[in-house]
Amino acid sequence: MNWGKTARSEKSLLTGPSPNPAWDKLMAPHGFTKEHNVPRSHVFALLDQLLVDRSFGGRFAYKDGWRGLTKNGDLKLWDVIDDKYPGQDHKPFKPGTAAAANPVCLSCKTQDHILDWAYMGDPVPGAKWSRTSKVNEMAKDMSHSLNCFFCHDPHSSKPRVVRDGLIQALTRPEKDTLWHKDAKATKIDVKDMGVRGYTRKIAMLGRADSKLMCAQCHVEYNCNPGVDPTNGQPIGMSDQRTNHFPMTDVWNITKHYDNLKFRDFRHATTGALLWKAQHPDVETFWNSTHDKAGVECKDCHMPKVTDPKTKKTYTSHWQTSPRNYLKETCLRCHSKWNETQAKYVMDSTNAHIQGKMRKAEYWLVQLVDRFSEANGLGLDEAVLKDARRKHDEAHAHWEWWTAANGAAFHNTDQAKESLNRSMVLAQEGLKILDDAIKAKRAGPAKAAMAVTR
């Protein structure tokens, strides 16, 4: 356990990427308003997924209470936590919680079910678990977070990926992903592993490409039910769209989901159908300054380090911020810098983008509040529809950056341009509503003046 790392934290703290009170207003009534955690180390991913307030409604808890936080990462999951409501259905058990977890959520945290899960999680004969399984029962069958075989073939140790949503994205006929458009993209060899009577797939990589390895989880992906924006009908877990990787950038994400006919939730105040991002880290990094220079995820987050006792050099699998070993990361290329200068650049870019996020939130809050004013005035539905579309687009250009990890440094220029775009779109939505409200209120006033004459 590294006690120097940041403690378990919440993104909606005042100092977080998505602080309240704006967060809950802009995301209402989505489950992420219940708890929006900052990720801890990978070894805690499954544990934290089971404990977070939005996922299992308070079902799972540390056996030792909050003292469980002192457990090392080599813990045995079910020695540390237990089910406080065994035998009961998946639902919220405690106030202020949600039961938003589903089987696809778990696939990002663990692959303990890899042999019991058909391709895309389709419910087929013989597969023990699927997208439609009872997630509380499936969770009890999982024990390990971020298995080695996510990225390494267990027989040869050669590089591979196993997440079905990613494999589907890289092989879909549209060829519309960032990978397809990259002339230097690593080649893949997809293999059907369906020896158990149903289709299972893995993809062997032409080289150890950490962008693709990390893209198994550190990407935006659908992992929940949603709504078809063309007809307002619900989309359930039986629909394959609930396990989908867009693998596109912030400029194309709204269009992608338009074509997919998918939105995550309807906003409580505006009625707009909106998107909830996951963690589009790889997509943000793709085509960035560092990416174009040939830097990969592993160069900054998994550098070569030397054991001080044995003097052996190995690839670190701590997978943490380069701030924690600047000599092995930033200073390898920026040789004229020292550690203080490297941190200065990181802190400066982060502060700049956090400032842009607060401004984008301000204008989105103004737009939501104006909807509150407009809702009781009987405005024309066409006007509200136009304003909702602006809300949808402005929201996407803000929400992308609340969900992305390290976005300020991964692609500073893109983050700045996108957040500025969010502000402009929110302001355009405001003008649509303000003009309509002004005209609506002017109508009765003119009528009253005509009567007095």
CATH fold node name of the domain at 289-452: Butyryl-CoA Dehydrogenase, subunit A, domain 3
**How much strand content do the residues show?**
5-15%
Rg from Cα: 24 Å
Helix content: 25-40%
Report mean pLDDT, rounded to a whole number.
Answer: 95
- Strand tally, please? 13
Stretches where pLDDT is under 50 for at least 5 consecutive residues are none
Q: In the CATH hierarchy, what is the superfamily of the domain at 289-452?
A: Butyryl-CoA Dehydrogenase, subunit A, domain 3
Continuous helix count = 16
Helix/strand order: EHEHEHEHHEHEEHEEHEEHHHEEHHHHH
Distance between the termini: 81 Å
Strand order of the largest sheet: 5-7-6
The CATH architecture of the domain at 289-452 would be Up-down Bundle
What structural class do helix, strand and pairing data support?
mainly alpha
| CA-based shape | globular
Describe the secondary structure blueprint for this structure.
Blueprint: E1 9-10, H1 22-27, E2 37-38, H2 45-51, E3 60-62, H3 77-80, E4 81-83, H4 103-109, H5 135-139, E5 160-161, H6 164-171, E6 188-192, E7 201-205, H7 210-214, E8 226-227, E9 234-235, H8 253-260, E10 265-266, E11 273-274, H9 281-285, H10 289-292, H11 297-301, E12 304-306, E13 313-315, H12 330-333, H13 339-374, H14 381-403, H15 407-410, H16 412-452
Antiparallel strand pairs: 1-2, 3-4, 5-7, 6-7, 8-9, 10-11, 12-13
Helix pairs in contact: 13-14, 13-16, 14-16
